[in-house]
Design goal:
The structure holds two protein chains of two kinds. By secondary structure, chain A is mainly alpha-helical. Chain A is built from eight helices and no strands. Classes of the chains: A mainly alpha, B alpha+beta.
Amino acid sequence: MLICLNTVAPQSADERETMERCIARLANGDAAAMEPLYNIANAAVYAFALSMLKNRHDAEEAAQDCFVKAYAGAGTYRPQGKPMAWLIAITRNICLDRLRERAKHAHAPMEDWESYVEQAAVSSEDRLVLEQCMNALDDAERQIVVLHAVGGMKHRETAHLMGMTLTAVLSKYSRAIKKLKANIMQTEGI
Amino acid sequence: MKNDKIEQSVKRAFVNAAPYQLDKVTEKCKEQKGKVIPLENKQAKKSINKTFARIAAAAAALLLMIMGSYAYGERYGVASTVALDVNPSIEIGVNKGEKVVYVTPKNEDGKKVIGDMKLEGSDIKVAVNALIGSMLREGYISEMANSILISVNGDDAEKNAAMQSALSAEVTDMLNTGSFQGAVLSQTITSDPETKRLAEEYGITEGKAQLIRQITENNAAHTFEELAGLSVNELNLIGESGTKSIANVTSAGTASERAYIGEAEAKRIALAHAGVNEGDIYDYEFEMDYEHGVMIYELEFDCAGSEYEYDINAKTGEIIKFETDRRGSVSPTPAPTAAPDAATAPASTPTPSSTPKPAANAESGYIGESKAKQIALAHAGVSEGSIREFECELDREDGIMVYEIDFECGNYEYEYEINAITGEIVKHDIEEE
């Protein structure tokens, strides 16, 4: 059980370096650097936005806005080997703004993540996993799992980002993985 | 199904579900670029503004004739405001000729700095000089806290930028001729209702409010409320230490750390507590921050497959918080860039001989993690070899420092809080999984 805390390899050093080079190029006005940056980070940014907003349309917009803000603010990025954490922090701020707006206007949109099934690339197995992530986990658990499994972030980077202790993150991560494992095995009849 | 398979499934599902929207992103980036107002538009805007200004000036002249000079009081003719923040906060209204129209303290310290000086009518540079001189005399700026924030607010962006630069140079020169080097932060600010509201609510200048808002935007762990009471030197230290620079703030000089123990000492304390050698650690990170109501050093490092995190009181050197995770994967020669791959490690408990043991900290008087663990295991009546998912955290609970210990054994989850000084079990809980 101990090994469950770090079984997905964190983001590779090569990927981090590529992302940092792209951000530096964006800061110099080289818009072509957006494509490689987007290709590496899109899934993590989108997954994190979805895990916070629980609405496909909002998550799509938040993910787009994240890259637009990263383009505008590339000059403020200090290369310290944490480009994914930087993008996720931008995404988190965008999502928090949206959640505040929702609260202000009291019109929370439907949680419509189910519409993924329309996408050809999403297999029935993917759908099952998405369902469990979105329904069985609480917000913090889902975000922590997504940041580590999809974003390749270290637990302590997640702790910083979410203003939680490392122990709390580790404990929630461990609990979340246990839940997913039990639910998926049950659904699959294993 | 193994845990790593679960994680891989999660990754695959989200990767497949994420829509590819690069075209839309590129389009929005272009649109954003297009939003930058070209120079000719600015000039056109200016000429419109000038027209309005002429009308307004004529109306004002008429009003002046009617009401006499009385009605204009001290705010008449203010073209821009200059705010000085150290801990004293002072706002200065300046007219188009850069002469001081009014000087207003924004807090008690500001009142003390202004004293009975009459600065109205003097050149802004002279007034700033006099106020900085007073701050030095009163001890608000010293080698222990050397940072000052200058914020310029007004309608004319070019003029604001010029004034910001001139005042920043003036103050830098003034502070650097003494026995220490000053750290001058300067910015032009744009009026924003939210910043204004926060400034009024917390009794600070809009400039300081804008600086704090930027720090909280860079680091979601901070709130405006907790930072509002800090001095500019403390804010500067937090800003300098963050991974992101504070946008739109020009910085000259380095914030003083003379009031604190320094990174080297903080590192020595953490390594001694963890019982590890400096040569064995990797992925070391260091940051100054404000947490638990005090300035702290945050140190993080990995050693032999475990992550360590320390919060150390930057003034006293006290360990406020200590966390580590014991994954049981021991890497004798850890690669500096690759994170330990626990997946390949045997699913067993950490081997006591090869896992670094935090030693009792003689300086803090804490019993140490090993002793706390021993107490918890003895109370639970389980052996070290039979437990899983051991976690230990040093934290403050109800005013006392405790080791929070969690582990699993058989089908049970155990939780303990152990007084870090006396070793007394403060709380314990056992739950069936």
